[in-house]
Amino acid sequence: MQERLDELRRLIRHHNDLYHRLDAPEIPDVEYDLLVRELEALEAEHPELIVPDSPTQTVGGAPSATFAPVTHELPMMSLDNAFTRAELNGWAARVARGLDLELDQGPPGVDPGHEADGGPVVDVAAAIAAAAAAAPVGYVCELKIDGVACSLRYEDGVLVQAATRGNGRVGEDITANIRGIAVIPNELTGPAPQVVEVRGEVYLPVSTFEKLNESQEAAGLPRYANPRNTAAGSLRQKDPAITAGRGLAFWSYQLGVVEGGPSLEGHGDALDWLAELGLPVNPERRRVETVDEVVAFADHWLEHRHDLDYEIDGAVVKVDRLARQEALGATAKAPRWAIAYKFPPEERTTKLLDIQVSIGRTGKATPFAVLEPVFVGGSTVQVATLHNDDQVRLKDVRPGDTVVVRKAGDVIPEVIGPVLAERPAGLERWTFPESCPACDTPLVRPEGEAHNFCVNPTCPAQRQGRIEHFTSRGGMDIEGMGESTVALFIEQGLISDVGDIYDIDWDAVAELEGFGQTSIDNLKAAIEASKQRPLASLLVGLGIRHLGPAGAEVLARAFGHLDAIVSATAEEMAAIDGVGPTIAASVADYFATDEARALVARLQAAGVNVQGPEVTSVPQVLEGLSIVVSGTLSGFSRDGAAQAIKSRGGKNPGSVSKKTTALVVGTEPGASKLTKAEELGVPIIDEAGFEALLETGRLPD
After folding, report:
1. What is the largest CA-CA distance in the chain?
2. Beta strands in 609-657, from DSSP E residues, in sequence order
3. In terms of domains, do 585 and 660 share one?
4. Domain-embedded: residue 546
5. Which of the residues 144, 318, 395, 651 is marked catalytic?
6. Comparing C-alpha atoms, which of 200, 315, 321 is closest to residue 267?
7. Are both 367 and 420 inside the same structural domain?
8. Per-residue pLDDT tens digits for 534-579
9. Dihedral angle at the C-alpha atoms of 443, 445, 449, 453, nearest 10 degrees?
10. What global pTM score does this model have?
C-alpha cells in the first residue's frame, strides 16, 4: 500500500512539474486525472497515511525560475472535479449540508441498504444527493476554458502586475507579456476601485492555433500539440514581443482582492461588473437554480463545444451568492462552493501497433497509425492520421511507442506524439515506403509538395477512392454504395470506374451473398435518383483536385452546362468571381484529358444531369453584400438560405469577419459566430429580418 502511495505521489509531482513549470506534459489530462483519483481513493481509505505535501493537499506546481516570483495575497486555488452525474449530485449534497438546507432524505427510519416495507433497497445517500440536485441553491454555470490560469492586479484602474497561478501561493511575474495581449486592457473603463484583482484564463483561439500550425508545416517544423500547451509556451516567452505576436486571448472568471469596489451580492453580479470595467468576460454563462439545469447547460456545450473558437473541457459550477461561498469555505486546495464538471476526454494514450500508408483517390500517400483500441472523444479509435512523411519524422513516433491520441468532435483522430518516458529500448525509426503499397509503383514527391504520390492512374487504391468519393454524400449521394460495396463490386469485376455505376449487371449482383431483391431495388433506386443531382454535385463527385463545393457551384452557375465547362479555358474560368487561378487550371487540365472527356460522354449517355441551375431574373439586391447564417431557420434549409443569398448576388461565407454585412440568427446558433459578430459590431438579424433583407437588400431598422 505505502509503495503504491509513494509511486502515485512521485508520478503526479513529475507530471505537475511538466505541466505547470515546463509546459511540456507527457500525458493527457484524463490520464493525469486517473492517477489523482487513485491517490485520492487510497488516501480516503487510509487517512492515517496522508502527508502534508501530498499532491492531493497542494495546488499546481513550482513556479519557474525564469520569471520573478509573485506572492498571491489570496491563494489561487484549483477546482475539484466531477466526472459523472452521481459525483455532481454528491457535490451538491455536500453544498446543501454545508448551508444547512433541509432536504428530503428518503423514507424515515430506514437505514441505507435495507428494504423499506418489503420494497426495493433504499440507497439513502443517493436519495439525499438526488434531493440536493433538485434543491434551488442558485448556481452560476461557466465554460471551463482549457488555458492558463492568471491573475491581473489593477490599482486605480491601471494594470500593475500579472502573474501565473504557480503553486497557488507563489506564481511568476508575467506582466510584460500580459501587456501584449490585445484583449486585456492596460486601463479599466468607468469608475475603478483602488485595487481589483482579476483572475481568468489566457488561451489561444483555435483559428489562431491552426494558422500557427500551417506556418510550422510550411517551415518544415513540427506541429504544436494543442492550443493549451501552445498558449502556455507563448505566455512564458522571455521576449514579450513574441508573446504579443502569438494572438493570445483572455477570459475573466473570478474576483480576487478588491479594495473600494461596489457591494456585490452574487458571483454573476461580479462577472457583470468586470465586464463593465472593460475586461473580457465569456458571454456563455448562465445563472440556474438546480443541478438539473447545470447538467442541461453542460450537455448543450458538450454537443456544441466545437462551435467555439476556443477549447473547453467542461463546465464550471459555482454557488452564486457570495455570502454562501464564504460560509462554505475551502479545503486545502479547492473551494467547496465550486466544482468542474468535466467532459469526456478528447486525448488519451494508447499503444502504437503499426504505421501504414493509404493511397487516396488522387494518389496521395498518407501515413496512418494502427492503434490498440482506445475510447477517446466519445468513440473507440483504432486508427489515426499521421498527416505526412515530414510529420512522422518530426514527431518521431515508432511502432511500439505509447502515443497520445486526440479526437475532437468529427475531426479525424490524430496522433499527437510519443510518450518518450515510456519508449521501450531499441525501437527503430519508421521510414516512409518507397513504393505504393497497392500497386508497387515508385512514390513521387513533387517539388514544393508536403505529400508523396502514387502516379499510376490505374492504381487499384486510387480507383476505389475515386468511386467512393463519387458516391459519397458530398458527391452523387448514392446510399448503399459505401466502401465495402464498392470494394466488392470492383473485386467481382462489376465496376472499374464511376461510369460503370450506371451500367451494373444486376443479375450478377443477385448472385452475390448479402444482396437480396430488396437491397438490390434500394441500390437501383439510389443510383437512379443520383442522375438528378445538381451539376455542382457531379463536379464535386468527379474528384477534380482543388475543386470543392463552393467552386463547383460557382462554375455550374456561371457556365450553365457541363459541356461549357469542359470546353472553357483556364483563363475564362479564372475570370469568374469565386474561381481562382489554381482551381481554374486544375479543372481545365482535368477536362483536357481524353479519359475525362470519355467519362463525361458516358455519364451524359446514362442520363446524369449535366445542366446547371436555371438563371432566374431575381433582382440582385444583395450584390456586394456578405451574409452569414447561423442556427436553424424555420423557412429555409441550410442550403436553401445559402441559395437565396447567392441567387440575389450576395456571398454566404462560413464565418463572421469585418467584411460581413449581417449575421442571420436562427434557433441554436453557433456561439463563436455570435460572439465574433458582437465583437466586430456586425448587425445581427432574425429570420424575419432576413426575409426583409432578401426582399429589399436593406437591413431592418
Report:
1. 88
2. 627-630
3. no
4. yes
5. 144
6. 321
7. yes
8. 999 999 999 998 898 888 988 998 999 999 999 999 999 999 887 8
9. -20
10. 0.55
